[in-house]
Design goal:
The protein is of the alpha+beta class. The chain has a single domain, classed as Cupredoxins -  blue copper proteins (Immunoglobulin-like, Sandwich), CATH 2.60.40. The protein is about 20% helix and about 30% strand. The protein contains two helices and nine strands, in the order H-E-E-E-E-E-H-E-E-E-E. A hairpin with a 5-residue loop joins strand 2 and strand 3. It is globular, with a radius of gyration of 19 Å. The chain starts with a helix and ends with a strand.
């Protein structure tokens, strides 16, 4: 009896990391990012140099107010994002490589949330949120803003900006 209990306990202990690694569909994307980003870093509210309102909806477009134009290296921008659509949308900041990786992850986990990811926000219909980002690093290519909910990027929910 004691041997069976010990073996059972041992097997349960071995299976726990697998169960936690598998998780549920509601993964927060922030825990999957390393500490370093190739396209900047989380910004601080006290360092915001401009605020841009970002509207998104089921027409699969981002509307930037004022227009984003180019971004200066070192600039910290607060993006106030609102979802006027009837579908869940997200707003993520990245470069081409990080957006490709994000898209692949979203295909595997389409219900993933971005609660702990400072570079993205997932919004239910009618909700709003914000992202504060410091563009402190020059990525290869453009800064890419995207919604990676399956099919949304391909439908046009993407915007690129130059970092100067």
């Amino acid at each position: 009896m004691k041997t069976t209990l010990i073996i059972t306990s041992f097997l349960l202990a071995l299976s726990a990391p697998v169960a936690f690694a598998a998780g549920a569909g509601d993964h927060d994307h922030g825990s999957m990012h390393g500490a370093a980003y190739s396209f900047g870093e989380p910004g601080k509210a006290a360092e915001v140099t401009r605020t841009i309102k970002v509207g998104m909806g089921d027409d699969m477009k981002f509307v930037f107010d004022p227009p984003i134009g180019s971004i200066k290296r070192g600039e910290t921008i607060r993006f106030e994002v609102s979802n006027a659509g009837k579908q869940v949308h997200e707003f993520s900041v990245g470069d081409a490589a990080s957006q490709r990786a994000h898209a692949a992850m979203m295909k595997k986990m389409p219900d993933m949330k971005h609660d702990a990811d400072p570079s993205a926000v997932t919004l239910e219909p009618g909700k709003s949120g914000s992202v504060i980002w410091k563009f402190s690093k020059a990525p290869q290519g453009d800064i890419v803003f995207a919604c990676q909910k399956p099919g949304h990027y391909e439908a046009g929910m993407v915007h690129k900006a130059k970092l100067k």
